[in-house]
Amino acid sequence: MNKHVTAEVIRRYAAVSKDSAAIHVDNEAAAKVGYKRPIAHGMYIMGVAQSLYLADHPKQWIIDYDMKFLKPLLVDTVAIFDFVFSECNIEVTVTAETGEVIASGSFSVKELE
């Protein structure tokens, strides 16, 4: 599943999460630390992964999760979310459109009654 992570989405997420660190919303701040553009929040990426999974599996509920962030995702990039299913455990890999793996992790799920 693909998700285009736009600057507008990240600005909205920054406002809601109260994490408006300049590296996420300001081109100059991102450039000062070596990025071409601002970077997405790690928790936003994890939340999108969970939302995409649950949209396709509405009778399940995530009860536990773990995600490691390996590289930053630049804003205005397409992120590709790949899920591998194994009973109650879901492995997720998030790759940037450049082919770089930016995050990986897993969810534990249970069926809703």
Automatic annotation (TrEMBL):
It comes from the Bacteria. It holds the Pfam family MaoC_dehydratas. Residues 3-84 form the MaoC-like domain. This is MaoC-like domain-containing protein.
